[in-house]
TrEMBL record:
Top-level taxon of the source organism: Eukaryota
Cofactors named for this entry: FAD
Protein name as catalogued: Photolyase/cryptochrome alpha/beta domain-containing protein
Family to which this protein belongs: Belongs to the DNA photolyase class-1 family.
Site (Electron transfer via tryptophanyl radical): W287, W340, W363
Record's keyword terms, sorted: Chromophore, FAD, Flavoprotein
Organism of provenance: Hucho hucho
PROSITE patterns: DNA_PHOTOLYASES_1_1, DNA_PHOTOLYASES_1_2, PHR_CRY_ALPHA_BETA
Cofactor note: Binds 1 FAD per subunit.
Domain called Photolyase/cryptochrome alpha/beta: residue spans: 5-134
Length: 403
């Protein structure tokens, strides 16, 4: 019996059904679309069993699956090495085409090239699309075609290009939902995937206070942040909707979204920054790397109130206010003289919004070793930062009750 030909849409960093570019194109193909997510064991093996980010991914997929169930479809969930999973899928289904949105991290690029080659070897087409950024790796360049390494001229060129577009198109996927494959795949529990619930949870994002973002963003005691960053990281919200919204509401908030794309194109064009200083002139820094000092930094027991409050907030919630992130990073590198890579690795383990490009970009900025970095001689004084941005000690007392 001849198998029905299908297209597959592969969810990765785009966990939503609305305004999803590759999904939009997949649903317009001539064959019904099976939505797929793969729990990649190459990534999962290094994570603790109660990793809150895996829980958030599972929860987001559940929401997608519930939406799909209302139209007689469901989400296909697989777990394993991506290449092994795809070899099995190509045998199980008559796949005419695979659709996915691009990812710009080194591991993802290598993975996607391998899957593209595997698909072609099985006479299956692969289509990839830009979705998680407004302008991708080589769309914002200097006049000579080389990438920007300084933020301000990059931002100016970004804004110039954005204004030439007039407005960003948001993709109406819902009009094509009838082209989802009609099926009922079993949806695995978190425990079946090999994980368990975490006490740490991703908060819903909130845009109501962003109009005043420029006035309140530096004060950690004011709960005025959007909680957007994990949602941007995993794509539960569309960057096009956010940028269209930010352009009308707050220029400073828009600048933060542009910083995100700046660091993404730095990682793409200079992948060595994952393990090396962007500025090789600083490769000779003799770090103290005292393990006892590092432990006290991690646990928030250094005796410096703003540093300790920030680290305790991170350990207990998976979040840390952006102003405080700069303080704790500067303290690690420039007071304790500990290699920024130690801090970057700890943040990668703890942050709900961990994003490789932003984490490396910001840590190298703080250390003075990165592109467009704070000069090596600039130090965030944790006492002055406390007096300026938590004058009444509200943030400090929240996270350090014994203070």
């Amino acid at each position: 019996m001849t198998k029905q030909e299908v297209s597959i849409f592969w969810f990765r960093r785009d966990l939503r059904l609305d305004d999803n570019v590759a999904l939009y194109h997949a649903l317009q193909s001539e064959n019904p679309v099976i939505p797929l997510f793969i729990f990649d064991t190459d990534i999962l093996e290094s994570l603790p069993k109660n990793d809150a980010r895996v829980g958030f991914i599972h929860e987001s997929l559940q929401k997608i699956n519930t939406q799909l169930n209302t139209i007689g479809s469901s989400l296909l969930i697989k777990k394993g090495k991506t290449s092994t999973v795809w070899e099995s899928l190509l045998q199980e289904f008559a796949i005419s085409a695979v659709y996915f949105n691009k990812d710009y991290e080194p591991y993802a690029i290598k993975r996607d090239l391998a899957i593209d080659a595997l698909a072609k070897a099985n006479h299956t087409l692969c289509f990839s699309f830009k979705d998680q950024v407004i302008f991708e790796e080589n769309e914002i360049t200097k006049a000579d075609g080389l990438p920007y390494t300084i933020y301000t001229p990059y931002k100016n060129k970004w804004l110039e290009k954005y204004k030439s577009i007039a407005s960003l198109v948001e993709y109406d996927t819902q009009s094509y939902f009838s082209n989802f494959h009609k099926n009922h795949f079993d949806f695995p529990s978190l425990q079946q995937i090999g994980f368990e619930e975490s006490d740490i949870k991703v908060q819903p994002y909130n845009l109501t206070q962003i109009a005043n973002y420029h006035e309140t963003r530096d004060f950690p005691a004011i709960d005025s942040t959007s909680y957007l960053s994990p949602h941007l990281r995993f794509g539960t919200v569309s960057i096009r909707k956010l940028v269209n919204w930010a352009v009308c509401k707050n220029d400073v908030f828009l600048s933060e979204l542009i910083w995100r794309e700046f660091f993404m194109q730095i990682l793409f064009n200079f992948p060595r920054v994952v393990s090396h200083n962007f500025k090789s002139a600083y490769d000779g820094i003799q770090w103290r790397n005292n393990e006892e000092d590092f432990k006290r930094w991690c646990t928030g027991t250094t005796g410096y109130p703003m540093v300790d409050a920030g680290m305790r907030q991170l350990n207990q919630t998976g979040y840390m206010h952006n102003r405080v992130r700069m303080v704790v990073a500067s303290f690690l590198c420039k007071h304790l003289l500990i290699n920024w890579q130690w801090g970057e690795a700890y943040f990668a383990e703890k942050l709900l919004d961990y994003d490789l490009s932003a984490n490396i970009g910001n840590w190298q900025w703080a250390a003075g070793t990165g592109c467009d970095a704070a000069p090596y001689f600039r130090v965030f004084n944790p006492d002055i930062q406390l007096k300026k941005f938590d004058t009444k000690g509200i943030y400090i007392r929240k996270w350090i009750p014994e203070f």
